[in-house]
Amino acid sequence: MSTESGQRMPAGQRRALIERLVTEQGAVQVEQLAASLSVTPSTIRRDLSLLTEQGKLARTYGGAMPAATAEPSLGQRTRLATAEKDRIARWAAARIGSAEAVILDAGTTTGRLAHHLRDRAGLTVITNGITALTELADADAVRVIALAGEMRHISQGFVGPLAELTLSRITADKVFLGADGLDPRLGICEASLHQTRLKELMVERAREVYVLADASKLGTAPFNAWAPLPRSWTLVTDSSATDEALAPFRALPGAKVVVV
């Protein structure tokens, strides 16, 4: 396609073409799309961001892939089970003392938990999540420690060696973890090994471990990266979870199940 024809193509038509290319090719890169459509990489990035928010595709590192086979973006997950996540977050917030130090994983439910901690004078929150950092950015009463490293744009959480190094220098009273999926035998499922490695370290640095997972996460394995569960931990889920889904977790030695 020539530069002239690419510049004349309406934005809607260009995005429809991008969606078709992603569907046909399975994955595409920003630079590849920019060259083939004769527009700038920044234009393609804006197109991909909009298409991701519309649920038509999912972002990858440097490009995009079909939404049906990819990790959902944080924006997409924010719109799912919102009431259930808030109930879980409120229950978790009630378990946190004002003078404690807690670790909050990246995610939507932990972001809601951070929202309910904004007025906790004397509390220390350690987090790798943009959602939690945003909620606590102007909460002057709360001490915030960011586990900054390489940002995963799709999940808006920091991971990698720098985040792990900071975490290795800290201990906490409690850790609250999110999950893309949760299996009683394999543990917490995530899209990236960087995520599961950081979760493992979070578990090691806290005295009490809580996994905040709405009912849709129980017994699911959308990806193939896993963080094992500790001997003693608490699952906090919502009332739409069935007895059948909860039974394998209740049978685990050392596991406690809370339904809110």
UniProtKB/TrEMBL annotation:
Family matches, as InterPro entries: Carb_Metab_HTH_regulators, DeoR-like_C, DeoR_HTH, NagB/RpiA_transferase-like, Tscrpt_reg_HTH_DeoR_CS, WH-like_DNA-bd_sf, WH_DNA-bd_sf
Gene Ontology MF annotations: DNA binding; DNA-binding transcription factor activity
Entry keywords, A to Z: DNA-binding, Transcription, Transcription regulation
Keyword Transmembrane helix: no
Name by which UniProt lists this protein: DeoR family transcriptional regulator
Residue spans crossing the bilayer: none
Domain HTH deoR-type residue range list: 11-66
Gene this protein is translated from: fruR
Source organism, top-level taxon: Bacteria
Organism: Saccharopolyspora thermophila
